[in-house]
Amino acid sequence: MNKLVWVKINSGNYFKVMSRLNNIGISLYDNKKYKDYILIETTYEDYEKIQKYLISYKTEIYAETGFKKVKNFIKKYLIFTIASVISILILFIANNTIFKIEVKSNNKNIRELVKDELKQYNLKPLRQKINHKKIETIVKEILDNNKDLLEWLEIEYDGLVMNVYVTEKVIPKEDEPKDFCNIIAKSDAKITNINLYRGVLIKEVNDYVTKGDIIISGEVTYNEEVKNNVCASGEVYGEVWYKVKVTVPFKEDYIEYTGKNRYNFNVRINDNKYRILKSRIKNKKEEETNLYKLNDFEINLVKEREYVNKTRTISEEEAYNKAISLAEEKVKLKLKEKEDILVKKVLKKEVNNSTIYLEVFIATKENIGVESLQKENDGSDNGNNTQNNQ
Amino acid sequence: MENLHFKEYFKNFLYDLNDFITIYENTLHVFNYDKLNKMSDNEIILTIKEKKILINGENLKIKQMTKQELLIKGKILKVEFIYE
């Protein structure tokens, strides 16, 4: 059947129009009569005939039916239609895609092993999910390939994440030589505080120690005879001294924002970031605002702020303060929680035309005790002292 | 058991005719008419095989129309031949 269309004919004379339509052989499938116009349902071919022969009436397409109607709707709401189609497509793809694989095991080697095995079956981020039956086959094959290492393996999907639960095979350890450990000083220091958990205390508070000195021993002795070996444990805080050398130029580089901003979007999947639009700013600082987040999938709004590099001259006092701050920062980089700077003092100051040079003495409170593993009947010290005084 | 398609047989029998008029409640179906001569709210005159037929009624309206068929809606009061 030919495609139908509703045609509006501007005329109040219903019977005259019908008579004319009949005369020119128009097929009429439905019609509605209104005060000033008539709506008729006819074919496209007949509509062309009406336009050709009924020139005394104003005619126009009122509404379309069937495929043509759908086609015109799509044409009219093109952006909306495209957006809807893309959204459904993204939803469908996202729903069938693995965005992240999480192997639940404390052993890093096992995690890597399982990930490598899964890769062989094309199971990695941004790949299509597979069905339950296939998963069972893969699990069986992986377990068969790693009989000595893996006890049990289970794969399940949690949204976009594929969780892999692994149980490592426990192999009973053969008798190993009995080890013990000491707590030794990692740097020269004056002991300020000791928290002993296990072992025998060798040094006291206010004692001066040098790097490598045993502070808490793992050898439990009685009447000068070793009765038992333990792994010594405890916290030893001491005063550690640094001499920091800093040179600061009087010319200082800084950045100045031009006020030109551009907005962009980026998509982050796992740890990979993809920029949506091309950036036109060469020197820029970026500020991200999260718009959408689902597991490891993020959409961010990025504000790009343009800047220019500039140079300015600072006063001797500013340079001096900057040097002190830099010296402090240098030391603070080595400090951990509960550790702090106790004293700082400038030992030497030299000023020339372009720079200021300072030698700063800094005393800190630090945990100076490190575990040193020792084999029985072996006097070797395996402690790792990473402290380097400047 | 094979179905006896009485309705279909009857329809075929009717459609074998060159022309006919069927009257339903408030509807009149004309098959194979030649010309629509005149139309108004209460009167429609059409020609079938050189015979003029007058349809009288109230609120008459052409519902469907092709080169062969006409479907007229409205209160049908009278259908008669006009002899001139």
Could you characterize the architecture of this molecule?
The complex is a heterodimer of chains A (390) and B (84). Chain A is of the alpha+beta class. Among the domains of chain A are: 71 residues, Alpha-Beta Plaits; 72 residues, membrane protein fhac (Ubiquitin-like (UB roll), Roll), CATH 3.10.20.310; 58 residues, no CATH class; 56 residues, no CATH class. Helices cover 24% and strands 47% of the residues of chain A. The termini of chain A are far apart. Chain B has 84 residues and is mainly beta. Chain B contains one helix and six strands; from the N terminus they run αββββββ. Chain B has one domain: Immunoglobulin-like. Chains A and B meet through helix 1 and strand 2 of A and strand 3 and strand 5 of B.
Which terms summarize this structure?
heterodimer, A: 390 residues, alpha+beta, Alpha-Beta Plaits, Ubiquitin-like (UB roll), five-stranded antiparallel sheet, four-stranded antiparallel sheet, 7 helices, 24% helix, disordered C terminus, B: 84 residues, mainly beta, Immunoglobulin-like, six-stranded antiparallel sheet, 1 helix, 12% helix, 60% strand
Total count of strands of chain A: 24
Mean pLDDT of chain A: 86
Give the helices and strands of chain B as they follow along the chain: HEEEEEE
Classify the beta-strand content of chain A into a percent band: over 45%
CATH C-level name of the domain at 97-168 in chain A? Alpha Beta
Structural class of chain B: mainly beta
Concise account of the structure shown:
With 390 residues, chain A is of the alpha+beta class. Chain A has helices at 14-23, 44-53, 66-76, 78-95, 108-120, 132-145, 316-332, and strands spanning 4-10, 30-33, 38-43, 58-64, 97-98, 100-104, 127-128, 150-158, 161-168, 179-185, 189-198, 200-201, 208-209, 214-217, 219-222, 225-229, 233-249, 251-269, 272-275, 284-294, 297-313, 340-351, 355-367, 369-375.
